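[SOLVED] Need 3D model of a two-part complex

Original post:
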Amino acid sequence: MAAKLDQVPVPDMSHSIWAGIETQLDAGVQVDTPKGKGWWYGFIGIVTVVTLILIGWYYSHKSNAPEKTVPKESGPVTKAPLPASDSNTIINKPKRKQLPVAPPPGKKDTLLNNNIIVDSTFRQDPPPARQDITPPVRVDSSINIPPAVKKHRGVRGITDDDYKISAKKDSAGKRD
Amino acid sequence: MAQEQLYRQLYGFAMAIAMRYAVDEHEAADILGHAFVKMFRSINSFDPQKGNFHGWLKKIIINESLDHIKQRSRFGSLELDVAEEPFVNNSIIEKIDAAGILQLVRQLPPATHAVFVLYAIDGYTHKEIAAQLNIREGTSKWHLSEARKILIQKIAAIKTSE
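Solution:
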């Protein structure tokens, strides 16, 4: 059988095959590309280019980032000094304070002093809708007014109910 | 060109080898093209003291052929400890022309085809085939046995049809 196969006629494709061989040899294409050095050089080049692009994009993006945030901060800053709106929102909180309130510790603010004075005169004014006022939200954060601290009244352990006079209790105590 | 002249001189020898492993002429041409490119690129590494040039080129072509076969199929894991030797009627084979025998061989499964040609035509041992194809010797023996069985069946079919 081996002898028979050696006698197999060979097709005449030498010209077409040689054309392909010549092309590959002229192009310098390496058949075993995974092992060739040219493959490594190309890979390193691509990685370098991609890295440079990413670095450029990162720095351009980073430089643009703070510019975008600045206008937002400048907006409320310019609107903050509106006195009327600020005083109205601050009035709401002091309404809950029924005791003479000392100013919050460490926070001496002229606006707070004004609130105390204003509170006596503008209590009955209805609170404006907060939706109309956007800056005060930020004003509060900038002024840093702490939340009202409700001070304890009376003796601890005794509730308001203890001061109430009820017939059942008293009658039961007196009969005995 | 010297390269072209060398190619023309070796074309017949190389193509006959590629034809044994390929399923058709187009695959054989593909194998031959890649093999010659490899040969020209590594010709400086050829050492005449280690062997003749034809043997060196034959190895390159066989390796390229096996790479093509591996892309088409997997080599099975069935194994045999002892190779079966089916009887082949040589008289029948003599009546069949070379092209007919080549067609019969090409009808074998890819892995079986490769093992049969390596062993029966190109003279590789099962140990060498196992190392070449990264399979066990038992697997190589099994493929050879299968090849012979199939060829006997096909030759018998030809005989009865006549």
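Edit: The radius of gyration of chain B is 17 Å.
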